Structure formats: C-alpha cells, structure tokens
Amino acid sequence: DESNINPFFLSMLGSITRACAQRGYDLLISFQQLSRDWHADYEDCHKADGLILLGYGDYLDYRGRLEALVAQDTHFVRWGAVLADQPGLSIGGDNDAGGLAATRHLLAQGRRRIGFLGHASLHAPEFLERHQGYAAALREAGLTPDPLLQADAISTEAAGCEAANLVLERGARCDALFAASDLIAIGAMRALFARGLRVPEDVAVVGYDDIPMAQSTHPALTTVQQDTRHAGELLVDTLLRMVQGEAVQSIKLPPRLMVRQSCGAVLQPARTPATVTPLPDGARRARRHAR
After folding, report:
1. Angle at 142 between CA 202 and CA 147, to 5 degrees
2. Closest Cα partner for 161 from 140, 188, 200, 138?
3. CB 239: neighbour CB atoms within 10 A?
4. Which ranges carry the Transcriptional regulator LacI/GalR-like sensor domain (predicted)?
5. 8, 185 Cβ separation under 8 angstroms
6. Helices vs. strands in the chain: H and E counts, helices first
7. Is residue 221 located within the same domain as residue 126?
8. Cα-based distances in Å from 66 to 12, 16, 54, 282
9. In whole angstroms, what is the distance from residue 27 CA to residue 16 CA?
10. What region does 82 belong to: left with phi over 0, alpha with psi -120 to 50, or beta?
11. Under a CB-based contact definition with an 8 Å cutoff, are residues 210 and 258 in contact?
12. Judgement on whether residues 104 and 218 belong to the same structural domain of the protein
C-alpha cells in the first residue's frame, strides 16, 4: 500500500502489542511523517510515558530527530543497528553475523560470484553491517567483493527488481544474490524470472528478515531470520525499565539462517515412521460388520 511499511515491522508490532497488554499498558500507534517535527509534537502532547520507534528511512536524516529526543529527556528505544555513537538506545539484530552466515552458506553451495543488493552506507546502517558480514565471508574464502555485483536498493520489491536488473545489465558473471531484505530478494527473483533465469539453478538467492511471505515464494526463500517476538518483548521491557529509572543498555540479538529452496540447498525433512497400533479383535469384527 501507499504507506510502504515493511511487513517485517508488522510482525514486530504484533509482539509489542502482546507484550504491552501482558504488562498492563496500552499501546498507542502513530504513523509519523518523517518530514514533520514529530519529536516536538510528542513532547507537547503528553499522551504516553515513552516511545518505541520502528523504521526510520535515511538514518543520517533521522539522527537529528533522535538527538532532539535525547535533549528533551524523552524515554525512547528504537529497533535498529546498535551503533557506538548513536543517540539513545536500540534493540537490533547482529547484522554482521547475519551477513556472514548467509554468504558463508552460499559459498558452501559452491557459489563464487555473489552479489549484494542494498545500500552499503551509513544512510542505512543495518544494510551496511550486512554488507560488512558479506564482504568478510568472501575475504575469508579468498575472494574479493566485486563492485559490479553490488547495487543500492531500499527495502521494496520494486527496488530489488531494479537493483537485480542493474547488476545483470553490467554483464559481470553472477551465480548468487544476497539481498539486504526479503522484499529486495523477492523483487530480485522477479527480475531473474523475467530474464529467463532459474532460481536457484542459475542464480541462488538469499534474503534477510524472514517475513511471512518468504515461505510462500516459489521457490521458497532462504533468509536470515530476526526474532520479532523476542525483539518486541525486549523493546517493551527496555522502555518500561527506562521509565522506572532503571539502568538499561542496547542489545544485539543473534540471527538464524532459515534454509529453504532458493539457495540451492534443498533440505528434505526426515520422515517419522507412523506408529500403527493393532485394533483388538472385537474392534476388528465391529468394523467388518459396519462395512
């Protein structure tokens, strides 16, 4: 829809809602236009004890608003990269570890020409950290990241499709794509299919986030999962402790690689033998009569 809300945040919002209810708090949800001085509006309205911030667009533009919240002594915590010099506290995933795990997995499948789709700059710190993990895995394998295999993209399917097309149009050989989000990965798969390329036979694809849609793509998308349930609980608990004057700190959550079909490593679930319990003789006779 026109809001462009990443479905990843919708999953986290459900967890935040449950956590607030379990702790006896009401949750007020507000969709903020980044062009407005919403931090000043919050300070003036006195509607809530604190803020949980999800999503931020360009971090370098957003940072000034975070600094204003700190200057106002606002209780707030955000979901995002844990940075050394950040204003305020954040709960976020270990993006370096996630990028490292995803790229190591692609390398283990024999892929050597691995592209990265997503902004690799301070404008998008989470994507930058995922790119750092990706580059570290390549160097670990004796490979050098190829700039021709990297294309900027925000977290939308359209941007992923455009970024994948850009990489392919450069003519550099590419046998795998690691996308900085699932939406980017799904858009990239659409671009590959439009060019007659097969996933994963011609180009393997790995995403990031494990949004619900990742299991419904064809082939199902291998991705790096971020635990939205645990994240939501930590966001709420950290904010409430802050409101109560307790000491709190930023937290990094470990990622988990979810291996599905799009990377080329198809896992066949082990079959559990069915347990057959013989019916008593009387029950067998009753069944025969019933027929």
Report:
1. 60
2. 188
3. 26
4. 104-263
5. no
6. 9, 10
7. yes
8. 21, 21, 12, 75
9. 8
10. beta
11. yes
12. yes
Residue 182 domain boundaries: 95-225+258-263
Note the Cα 176 to chain centre separation in Å.
19
Spatial contact of 153 and 159, defined as CB atoms under 8 Å apart: yes
Q: Are residues 247 and 133 in the same domain?
A: no
Helix (H, G, I), strand (E, B) or coil at 45: helix
272 within some domain: no
Tell me what the mean pLDDT of segment 90-102 comes to: 98
How far apart CA 259 and CA 205 sit, in angstroms, is 11
Q: How far, in whole angstroms, is CA 185 from its chain's centroid?
A: 11
280 within a domain of the structure (yes/no): no
95: its two tokens: 């993006």
Give φ, ψ of 16 to 5 degrees.
Answer: -65, -40
Q: Are 203 and 192 in contact (CB under 8 A)?
A: yes
- Each residue's pLDDT tens digit, 19-40: 999 999 988 887 766 556 666 6
- Quick one: tokens of 228? 């939205």
Domain annotation covers residue 37: yes
Q: Token pair for residue 53?
A: 């911030």
CB 84 within 8 A of CB 149: no
User: Is the pTM of the predicted complex or chain greater than 0.70?
Assistant: yes
Which residues are 252's β-sheet partners?
Answer: 92
Q: Which CATH number does the domain housing residue 108 bear?
A: 3.40.50.2300
Tokens standing for residue 10: 């919708």
Quote the mean pLDDT of the chain: 88
State the angle between helix axes of 95-108 and 125-140 in degrees (0 to 180), rounded to the nearest 10. 40
- Dump pLDDT digits (tens) for 43-66: 566 677 889 999 877 898 889 889
pLDDT, tens digit (0-9, with 9 covering 90-100), for 141-183: 999 999 999 999 999 999 999 999 999 999 999 999 999 999 9
Of the pLDDT bands very low, low, confident and very high (cuts 50, 70, 90), residue 15 is very high
